[in-house]
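worker-3 :: picked Integrase core domain-containing protein
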Amino acid sequence: MELIQCYFEEGHSYGVILEMLAVYHAKMIILCSLKTHLKDAALFRRQNYSPLNDVRNAIRADLLGPDQLFGYRCCNLLFQKLHVKRDDVMRLLKELHPNWTEQRRRRTFVRRTYHSMGTNFWWHLDGYDKLKPFGFAISGCIDGFSRRVL
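worker-3 :: tokens ->
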């Protein structure tokens, strides 16, 4: 039972849990039995939500980093093992930073400041590889100061 709980809390799917129990621990159970064990242990995929204070603190820490203008879909709460409803994340983002939420809603483009020392100091190279399987490799380079195509 502890193995099932450990694998479940690590975020593995039901099929992976069954396979790991069979391969690594020589315990063969069926999916119905696995779900019964999880139900008896009060472990549910969609009902074990994290406390909102923990989520609020995680969002606040996220907004201090370089990804501060990411929306609710890009919040990496999943990587911090927090289970949150998307609506809660949307509401907390609107509560913590309403002006950023409004910017994202209006889809306004805010240019970042860019400083270059002069011509040929920064070159920006980009490629378009979609046609590469057909023998067409497209690349381009622009000068960061004058924005001229090189």
